[in-house]
Structure formats: structure tokens, C-alpha cells
Amino acid sequence: MSTHTILKIATPQISLQNQFSKELGISRILAQVLVNRKITSVSGAGKFLKPSVNDLLSPGLFSDMPKAVSLIKKAKENKEKVAVFGDYDVDGITSTVLIKDTLEKIGLKVLHHIPHRINEGYGLNEEIVNAAIKNQVKLAVTCDCGIANHKEVDLLRQANIDVIITDHHEPQNSNLPAASSIINPKVRHSSYPYRELAGVGVAYKFSQAVSDSLLVDDLDLVALGTIADSVPLSGENRIIAKAGLLRLAQTKRLGLRAIIENAGIENRKINATYVSFIIAPRLNAAGRMDSAELALKLLMSKSISEAQNLAKELDSLNRQRQKVEGKILEEAETLINAQVNFKDHKVIVIAKEDWHQGVLGIVASKLADRFYRPAIVISLSEELCKGSARSIENFHLFEALMGCKELLNSFGGHAHAAGLLITKDNIDEFRKSINKLASDRLTLEDLLPSKDIDLEISFADLNEDLVRELELLEPFGMGNPEPLFYTRSLQLKGEVQLLNRGTLKFWATDGVNPRQVIAFGMSSLRESLLKAESFDLIYTPKIDSWRQEESMIFEAKDIFFK
Questions:
Q1: Is the pTM of this model over 0.90?
Q2: C-alpha distances in angstroms, 214 versus 58, 164, 168, 206?
Q3: Tens digit of pLDDT for each residue in 287-312?
Q4: What is the pLDDT of residue 546?
Q5: What pLDDT is stored for residue 2 in this prediction?
Q6: Which class for 324: exposed (0-12), middle (13-18), buried (19 or more C-beta within 10 A)?
Q7: Which is it for strands 81-85 and 109-113: parallel, antiparallel or unpaired?
Q8: How far apart are alpha carbons 20 and 326 in whole angstroms?
Q9: Which end of the chain has fewer CB within 10 Å, C or N?
Q10: Which residue, among 442, 421, 285, has the nearest Cα to 368 in the 3D structure?
Q11: Alpha-carbon distance 280 to 286, whole Å?
């Protein structure tokens, strides 16, 4: 389908295939997929296939953790008020719920605040600080924020309020906020060996240390925030996601049960896809379209009727979000066609009045996927303009923004996602600056979509037993994509069905082995399929459990015609 897609077919590692296969009792195909995930030892492969909560790292490996725990003990002994400050996305909301719940269980009185995305913006602000002082708070704990709030932390400390920062965002420089304790695996002095925790993963480590417990029952929340934040599902995140999805399927949280039932997936196997595309968008809709307090209230609900009503409200907000997003996406593409010269612009920077700030990140993500280059979408305002940015594989967004920081009022984020504030007058200069930087760092090949192929195989190599074995690789996500296979010289067998939402369903054969294929969003290829003498297929094999009848099906990711 994509004529300029670069195929990166992994080189088979026969020796490791044989070793893994023999010692772990797995197929050579699964063994090669593990090698492609940069797993090169039998013990590493075994732990990947069977991740255990017993292999979670000790929270005590954070160098500032003892100080944080002592501050909590002090607050408890002195019966001090504690304020928990979170963020409005799923990662920040789950972090807030987890820490608030943990502190309340040990007897502390806990206030909380999640900022309004549009009225307050990300992180701490002076109004929040003043409210904490007025409420006689003695200890503040941040969740999924705080590492960039130097001024606000200073104000809290000047008011004799201790501050514990739990965050996972990149610090902008070596000068950290003057907090009492900083729990962040990405700061330079952190001794924690795993850098990729989500905000809720850091909150989980803090909660474990405070409660002196593994908190296995809370892994439903931790997995939810981890998967929703699109951090790599490797290392410790894989353990959290794998164990947490099992907990999520049987969660005791009334709010999560209500949202799962409302979405109609209560009788399905809850996997990372359901979290990313069904559960998380509904929770995120609260902070995008209204107040994230709605989602937090759902997750903390103790009433079935309240949980069900809140789940319905979130579903309605999510539908509203989809409409707003669709309109802005259409306007954004019109602007790109009129303003962006792809020869000169390696980074898309577009801006328009009245774009809803709550959906800028989703729009930027879809534009980055569609045009395969970094995308920055800005909502214009007479005062500060808010923007969201999403990137591609070989362009570190946070580092790029650091290179343009003199043009920005503030910014923060990661390699692949960031937010920023900028004045209207600086947007044109920022566009030039970040594109000059990108022209130095990105090659033409970087701007072509690529697919990492695990193996080139024949249809005869795959059967239902092997496809079920590949399910050991779940959960899939960033850092652990679904396995991709490549088979050449196939022919169409029979008719091509056209299903809803531009989906095709058909049978392909290598001449001996017919296999059913489903191709989402590829309806434009129907005539080409009917006319082609042969075609090559890139696909992920799956077990289809439609109407309780299970069968093997290949999900097409790309089709190349001869």
C-alpha cells in the first residue's frame, strides 16, 4: 500500500533461535521475535515470556526515597495536612488516585488538586500554592508533574511546606527544583536503574515504600496509567502491564468496572489495545473537554449507581471529543496543504484560532502518523498560545525544544511527546528555528515510514498453535510491538468482502495454504486486489474469537502489488 515504506527485515539469528527453542521449549519463530526485541540470553527470554511481580525493583533504589518516607512518617506523627497535586491525563489521574489512597490508608488527611487543562494548564501554579498555604498544608506531593516547577516549589518551601516530587518527565537542565525529595528516574542523581517508568509507575514505587507493601491489588491502576502514557512496555513496565491487565480484568474498583461495562467489553480479554483505544480515551475525555476531576471521581467511586452515571458521562464527553477532534484535524490538513512545503519543512508547525486545547495532542499525533514527520499544533490566543507536539522515531522532541527554548515561554515532555507555551509573535521564528534544527538532524530516510519485519516466512510456517504461542509476547505497545511477518507472491482466493469502516476481508493463498486476511481501512485497495496477479503481504497473525468461534486470521498491515 505504501510505495515508499522502508522494510527492515531482521536477520535470522539461527544459533539463538536453536538455543532458545531447545532450552525454553518454544518455536524458532517465537525465539527469533524475542531476539528482535534485543533479548539475547535464555534467562532474559524466560523472564520476558513469564514476567513476575517478584522481579520488580525495590523502591529503595531511588536515592531520595528514604527522605520521602521520613517526611510521610513525620506528617503522620504530627497529624499534618498533605496535598497531592496531579495532572489531567490518565497517567496523572491514576497517579493521584494511587498516592491519595495510599496516604489515606495510613491515616493521613489528604487534599488533592488536578489542574483544569484550559484554565490552569499543566503542573503547579501560584493559585494552587496559595490554596495549599491557606489550607495549612504542611506537605505537598506531586504526581506526574513538578520537575519543571522551580518557582512554585520555592514558594511552597518559603511557606515551610515540604515538597516531594514524584515525576517521570525530563528535567530541562541540571538545576532541579528545591524540593525536599525528588523521586524521578530521569534526574541525573537518580540511582534507579530503570528510566522508563510512567508517572504512575513512579507513584507506585513511592506508594510501595510508604506502605512497605508490594501493592499488587493496585496494579490495575498502574497498568492503566502506564499503557495510556505510551511508555516502552519493556523491563519493569512489562511486568506492571502484564500483571496489571490481569488485575484490570477482575478489578474491584467500581469505576473501572462501570467504564468497561459501558464500553461493552466486560466479557472480553482486556488487553493493551482495549486500554489504549477504549478505556483510556474515555478517562482522558474528562480532562480534554471539561475537568479531569470527573475521571478521578469515577476511579475513587464507592457507589455502583454513581460509577455507572459517571461512566455514561465520560462516554458522552468522549463522543464530543471525537467530533471536535475530527473538525480540527480536517482544518489542520487544509492548513498543511496550503502552508507546508515538505521539501523545506521537516517539522510541521501549524496554528489557528479557536482550536480546542484539549485535543491538540491527539491531532498532532495523527498528523505525525499521516505525514511521517514531527507535528506541532498550536491554538492561537492574544496572550500565550498553547501547543502540543508529537514526534517520529529518530527525532528527540524534548531535545529539539531545548534548542529553541529562547523562543518558548515554557515547555516540557519526552522524546516523542511534548507541550509548549509560546507568544503569537514568536511562532514564525520558532517554525524556522525548529526546522533548521531538524534539517541538521533528520535524513531523508528518517522521513520515510518504515516497518520492522520480524521474519519473512511462508503461510505453511503458521498454524493456530504457533499463533497462540505468540500471545506469550503480550502485552504489546511501544518497545514491544506486535510481531510482523512478510510473505511474498500470494494470490487472491475468491471474492473480497467490503465491511464497515473501509475494512476488507478476503482469502489469500500461496498456492497450497489458504489463509483468511482482514485489512482495516484498506478499502481503496479492493480493485487492485481483484486485478493483481500476485501480491506481498505484511501482517500480524491473530486468533479471531468473533461470536465465540475461534479461528486464525491475518491482520494486514501493508499490501504490495506486483
A1: yes
A2: 9, 21, 20, 11
A3: 999 899 999 999 999 999 999 999 99
A4: 66
A5: 46
A6: middle
A7: parallel
A8: 47
A9: C
A10: 442
A11: 10
